[in-house]
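Re: Re: token formats

Sure, here are both.
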Amino acid sequence: MNIKEALLVLIIVTTFFLPGYCGTDETNQNIKYETVNGFEGRVLDDTVFTFKMPYRLYIPDEVHPDKSYPLVLTLHGMGRRGNDNLRQIENNAVWATAYAEPAVQKEYPSFILAPQTPTGTTFSPLWPRRTDDEDVIKSFNYDVLPQPESYQMVMKILFSILEEFNIDRSRIYVTGNSMGGFSTWYFAISNPDLFAAAMPFAGGGDSSKAHKIAHMPIWIHHGDADHVVSAKFSRIMMEALESAGGVGEHKYSEYKDVQHGVAGTAFSIDENNNGIPDIVEWLLKQRKR
């Protein structure tokens, strides 16, 4: 290859491939900062990282200095990636917005943290997508995969919130849907002493490390007709938790004839008929052991 050909290849790569790979095509000019439905718009801008991360923070209406409050970390799926700082809380993002409903906040005033990762990035290591092969699913191993920069950024944001507000350290929760469901497992396993409980939707994780969170209350949700992420991912994680024993309450709900949008179904169940979904009450009642 001569110099001219090499230069042409370099132009093609930097123009078409690198922006999509590292997410730098998103210039952050479209980040929304105005408060939306109680969610304040913020951004992490730290030169340690290669990009900025927008996020939303819901702050209870009345925060008393002599009282501590729970915090729910909510992680979105792939379709909500970007830099608009809106997708992660709009269009039925119930895994985040359900905790901001007036009935919930009246009974359980709490902070809600909803970060947004750029297109081309993930909160957790990439998983073997669209497979129902149990051997492949069980081979998913965090140790051989790099820790995503987005994970590090979310943790930095989380700890900054813990410093800024009086958060109850015994009531920090993690939950998420699809990619966010996989990320819920990753965050919980990576921080077994931080979170009081975890609630993944349509996700999966490294089952060989389930013993690290056997002490943690975990409620898993999956649709049995999910063709995007096989329910086997969740079944295998539940089996691993049961095998690990521990003192945590481990629950698994599989919804008949429900596809990938399992969160909408799960959050619609309100057996107490008090305007608060059962799964919301369950999560916000958990305390770190």
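Second one below.
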Amino acid sequence: MTTHRPSPAAPAAAHAAALWPPEVAGHVHGIDLLRFLAATAVLLFHFKSFGLYAPGYQATGPDAAFAFLPDWAASGWVGVQVFFVLSGYVIARSTLGASWQGFLIKRAVRIFPALWICASIALLVRIASGEPVLERLLDWSRSVVLSPKGPYIDGVVWTLVIEAIFYALVGLTMARGPRQGGGYTASLDRLAVVLGSASGLFLVFCTVAVATAAGSAAALDWFGYKLLLLRHGVFFALGMALFAATRSPPSLPRQAFIVGLVLLCLLEIRLKALTDGDSDVATAAGLWLFMLAWLMLSVTCRPPVTRAGLRALLVQLGRLSYPLYLGHFVVGMYLVPPLAQVIDDRAALLAASLLIVATLALLVAHGPEPWGQQRLRALLQRIGPARPSPQPSYPRENT
């Protein structure tokens, strides 16, 4: 007689089902809000240095359209580092109940349609401004395929290239994991250790090199290091380690590993601040720690959101965050100067610019993006249908 043993995911699934209605079981609404906060932080960081008289970035003094934004907005770039931690957590969770083919299909469906739409909008905006058509078409083509070599049509695309490399690494680990023993969970745990250790050693080396004048922070900011996940691997590893800690009580070594990753992440933030000339490292670190604490509370405490209206709002904010992140930079930068010719008041100019950018993101999130996702999913499933997963499924999450 065979005795059925519940999977490790079963207690967590039952716990989630007991707290939330079936249609939202497994969905962490705190992640939706955190995504929106991270995207908003990056948006305000860029807006603070948009040019007033001509499309430009990193404008200062009277040339900056919104220099009156609060000082902490200058450290809003840490929203990118928050996204990387979120990716580590969500991607690790999304591997449960998925084959490696299904995982990669889901990642492609999630990332490409909005990218193609927003990159095309950026292309039209830049061509309409009088920029060389052929050069911009080349930038666009590199962006829509996430080429590891830029330049890109939009300044935020490089982060998606880094994300895609991480996805590919996880997919490869999933494909090899069952053959190595221990299934996906053990394989992903090993990946987190390797990724965090390699990135951490690199960051320590960078810090020592800068401190001893053996190298400059700018020289260590070579894009190739980012492509190898040496600069940001600690953030992905931290997210993966946090997910592993939510599945079972973390052992003392795992707790020490998480603490070490947090410290290494702060080290990378310091190096980034030195590279970009942001002297307020404390504010940047504080913003990142606040959002990290929000993530940890969201996935451990998981307070139930019982009001349907509030649940819907949080889900919409989560859906809005990706097209808002993708679509704010070029559109906002090229929109501000012509709007400034008809709107004198800087606060009103900011409000109008944000309204247009947010409206565009909302239209993308509720129109062409879901349509494109459906078409791409159908195409990819015909080309390479997903095989059954070797692991049990898990409640739906913010993936």
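The CA atoms of residues 107 and 292 lie 23 Å apart. Residues 77-302 form one domain.
- S.
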